[in-house]
Amino acid sequence: MWVPSAAMMGSGEALGLSFSNDNVKGCVLALVSSAFIGSSFIIKKKGLLRAGVSGPRASVGGYGYLKEPLWWLGMITMVVGELSNFVAYIYAPAVLVTPLGAMTIIVSSILAHFMLNEKLDKLGILGCNLCIVGAVVIVLHAPTESSLTSVDEVWELATQPAFLLYTASALAVVLVLILYFCPRYGQTNLMVYVSICSVIGSLTVMSIKALGIAIKLTLEGSDQFVYFQTWIFASVAVTCIICQLNYLNMALDTFNTSLVSPIYYALFTSFTIVASVIMFKDWSGQSASTIASEICGFVTIFSGTTILHSTREADIPSPTDIYASLSPKVTWYIQGNGDSWKQKDEDGQYPDFPSSLRQDYF
What we know:
- The chain is mostly helical.
- The protein has two domains: about 20-145 and about 290-315, no CATH class; about 145-280.
- About 70% of the residues lie in helices and about 5% in strands.
- It contains 13 helices and three strands, in the order αααααααααααααβββ.
- Strands 2-1-3 form a three-stranded antiparallel sheet, with no helix packed on it.
- Strand 1 (about 330-335) and strand 2 form a beta hairpin.
- Helix 2 (about 20-55) runs antiparallel to helix 3, helix 6 packs antiparallel against helix 12 (about 290-315) and helix 9 packs antiparallel against helix 10.
- The longest helix has about 35 residues, at about 20-55.
- The N and C termini lie far apart (about 75 Å).
C-alpha cells in the first residue's frame, strides 16, 4: 500500500493541508454531498415547474410544490447531501469542506443541460471555471483546524465580540433584503434571493460545525448534550436551514438553474469562509503568503460570479416572448365583407364566420 513520504507530508503542511484520515474522510464526504445536492437542484426545479402548471408558483408565494412527489424526491436528495456535508464538517475544517461545493456546479450544469435544456454560453462556462479554480486555490491553502475539546470552547468562540458583530451585521442585511428588496426586485434580480441564502448559510455552517463537534465528542464518550449551548446551536441551525430552503426555492423557480447554482455556491463559500475565519480564527498563525493566496481565491470566485451574472443581464427576450407576456389579449375576426368582430380570449366564445384573424396585445 502506498504511503506518503515525510517530504510529501511536509509539503502538504506547507500548503496548509494536513493529510490526516479525518481530512480525507471530510473531503470524500464533501464530494459525495456535492453530487447529491447538485442533483437535488435539478429534481426540485422539475417539481417546481410541474407544480407551477396547476397553481401559484413558489416565486409568488405559492406552496403547491408541497403536493408534488418530484419536489419531495429532490428534497430527499438534498437531505442526503446535507447529511453527508454535516458529517464532513465533523471531520474537516469549514475552509476545506465548503469550497469543495464546486462539484455542485458541475453536476447541476450537466444535468440541467440534459433535463432542463438550460445551456451556458462561453462566458458562463468561463465563469464556472473561475469559480472552480478559486475554490481549488482556497483548498490548497486551507489552514489546519485546531482541535476543540468541549462545546464550552465553541461557545466562547461564538460569543466573542468580532463574531457577534458579524452575526448582527448578517441578520441586519438579511432583514433589509427580505423586507425591502424582495418585494421590489426579487422577481428581476437574481442576487436578492441568492444573497439571503448565502448570508444565512454562513451562520448555518457555523452552528452545524458546533453541533458536529458536540456529536463527535459525545460519541467519543463525553456527553455534550447536557449543555444548553448545544441545543442553542441546534435551534439556530434548524431555523437557518428552513429560511434558506424557502428562498432557495424562490430563486430556483424564478431564474435559470445553471446560474443560480454557481452564484449561490460562490457567495455561500465566500461568506462561510469569512465567518469561519472570524469565529474559529483560521488565519491565526498563518503566513502572509498563505493568506494572500486565499484572498486570490476569493477574487477568482468573485470574478466568476460577476461573469455569470453579466450573462444573465445580457439575455434579451425575443419579440415573441415580449408580446406573449403582455395582457390582456384581443382577437379580431375579419368577416368576408370586411366587417370585424373582436373577442377576448378568456370569454371562450368564438363566431362561426371568420375568414381570417388578427391578435392584438396591449
